[in-house]
Amino acid sequence: MGVYDEKKETCGTICLKYLLFTFNFLFWLAGGAVMAVGIWTLVEKSDYISLLSSSTYAASAYILVLAGTIVMVTGVLGCCATFKEQRNLLRVYFVLLLCIFLLEILAGVLAYIYYQQLNEELKQNLKDTMTEKYKQPGEEHVTRAVDKLQQEFKCCGSNSSSDWAESKWLKSAESDQRVVPDSCCKTPTPLCGRRDHPSNIYKVEGGCITKLENFILEHLKIIGAVGIGIACVQIVGMVFTCCLYRNLKAEPY
After folding, report:
1. Which end of the chain is more exposed for a tag (fewer CB within 10 A), N or C?
2. What is the CA radius of gyration of the chain?
3. How many CB atoms lie under 10 A from the CB of residue 129?
4. Alpha carbon distance 39, 45 (integer Å)
């Protein structure tokens, strides 16, 4: 009877090992996906981050990059701990899983909080950023972001093209009699911003603020869903780890 129980326990341990190994492989792939989402946000959409007064959006992306990196390292550690059957490694692995779990929950919560306050922030700051910093010395990143925003989303001005009437740059001689930046034009050419007729520039209801808000809200949903989704999957990994640790502890050397 003792031999049967021992074999049964050993079979259970082997099953847990392979389940945990499979989980770690999938977990490693998921870590790459998490890191990719964070890097994509920071690299491809970094220009838009400069238009936001709050750093919450960027912080969510940085947390995902950090979590994704730790996930990939943890996945390798988990495989080693599983096959070597070392309880100390399993303990470290469990603690790392818990840390990643908390990081990803934090990224999801930050994304959700920012989701709630985004509209108010854009209303308060986007117009001022565009009119006060566009084409100003030392604000090249804002200029690039505004031009990219207006061309990519086919819009002009924060709320409407008339917002540009308050622009520091357009009030100066450097504007060369433009009434809007050339990036407002449907077909951008040098000095095309001198003419603000609807046939020449983008006249979009709600202006760029609506377009940027919709874009960021969609991206925040992705950040939040990825962070919380993978965090939930990690609970399964922690359960498997605890079961394997308990079985190893119970088995004689």
Report:
1. C
2. 26
3. 19
4. 9
Q: Structure pTM?
A: 0.68
Q: What pLDDT sits at residue 27? A: 75
Instruction: List the Cα angle 218/39/114 in 5-degree steps.
Output: 40
Torsion angle of the four alpha carbons 133, 135, 138, 143, in this order, in degrees rounded to the nearest 10: 80
Rounded-to-integer distance, Cα 21 and Cα 75, Å = 9
Average pLDDT on 189-209 reads 87
Q: Rounding to the nearest 10 degrees, give the CA dihedral for residues 14, 19, 25, 28.
A: -120
Query: Does the structure show a pLDDT above 70 at 4?
Result: no
Q: What is the C-alpha to C-alpha distance for residues 241 and 94, in angstroms, rounded to an integer?
A: 7
Q: Are 230 and 34 in contact (CB under 8 A)?
A: yes
How many CB atoms within 10 Å of residue 38? 24
Structure tokens at 114: 């920012």
Note the Cα 243 to chain centre separation in Å: 33
Nearest C-alpha neighbor of 27 from the set 39, 38, 35: 35
**Of 94, 82, 88, 92, nearest in space to 14 by CA:** 82
User: How many residues make up the chain in this entry?
Assistant: 253
Count of CB atoms situated within 10 Å of the CB of 252: 4
